[in-house]
Amino acid sequence: MRLSHQRKFIFLAYPRTASRTIRTFLNPISDVKGIAAQDVSPENPFYVHIDASNAGKALERAGHRWADYYSFAFVRHPYTRVQSLYRMYLSSYVGEEGSGRHVSDAFSWTDYIDRYIKVRPFREDAA
Question: Looking only at Cα atoms, what is the longest distance across the chain?
Fold first, then answer.
């Protein structure tokens, strides 16, 4: 998340969407930079991956109007985002060298999808 009161923008950084690159690009013109979620306080409620609803509430509590800011975010194709999450899972599973864990011991792609990705069945009567 990046916020500029002078330029009246708020960038919402969603995970696995190249948000680190965009945040780095916006750093020089941002007044507020998101912090780690565990470091949030009443004085600094903006964390890196804050959602629009919470960002709007925090902005309003600070005396600003959400409607006065241009808000934007980037999204990614859902399939490639899930692939990226899986690669992140694999790298965190193996961990540091010497951990004794091997990527072949991790969930396969199919097991990962079955375990973590919930797909709601299509209902024709829901239209």
Answer: 54
